[in-house]
Prior knowledge:
Blueprint: E1 5-9, H1 13-25, E2 29-33, H2 36-45, E3 51-55, H3 64-75, E4 81-85, H4 90-98, E5 103-106, H5 111-130, E6 143-146, E7 151-154, E8 157-158, H6 163-174, H7 181-187, H8 194-211, E9 218-221, E10 225-228
Parallel strand pairs: 1-2, 1-3, 3-4, 4-5
Antiparallel strand pairs: 6-7, 7-8, 9-10
Helix pairs in contact: 2-3, 4-8, 6-8
Amino acid sequence: MGATKLLYVEDDPVIRENFSTMFMSEGYNVVAVSTTDEALHLIRTRSDLDIAIFDMQLAEDRAAGIALSKTFRGAYPIAPIVLLSSYVDLDLQVEAYQVGADAYIDKKEPLPLILVRVRSLIARLDVLKTEGTKEYAQNADGITFDHDSELVFWNGQRLRLNHIRYKLLLQLYSSPATQSVYDLIQAAQISAESNTIAQHIKLIRSEFCRIDPSFSCIETVRGKGYRWVDVG
């Protein structure tokens, strides 16, 4: 198996050099470009990329990373997507997760922490690539959790969940009590703004409904939060 191929898009030459050097020091095969057009060309003409890391803003386009993420996800259904941003915009965060991004990271985070996030996403990709050779024990209610690889199956079919949504679903399923937004963030040990939790729950539900249109196990408790209910 060759080195992990990492597509990195950043228009600031200093940042691009620093991050590229860091990724290469980890043994990654880095393909670094500075423009949306260059990135789109690579996404459309290559079939061997393992992970994409996009700067959210390229030139004057504050949402360039969103468009790139959408195109990349269409070409690479399971490869991780990381968005780096120097500003916080909750609407863009929500949109990023909607188009398939796995992580939205503040550029001001220490480089070692960013690298840890990238490592964990690549490790998860390796598991996804080999999941077809592994057998899973399904629970009586139709759901299966693989805690090592953060995979979830519903009636034998895999749900497409990123790290945050996996943690939220696990917390909901593990506790029969109603979970407030604060409870979910704390118990799942995730870093997520409360405003985005409702969107994550919506996307979790949509993944279940993709497999089972009658799914209704995640209930909204008005004014309180959410809970998992067994409707079987």
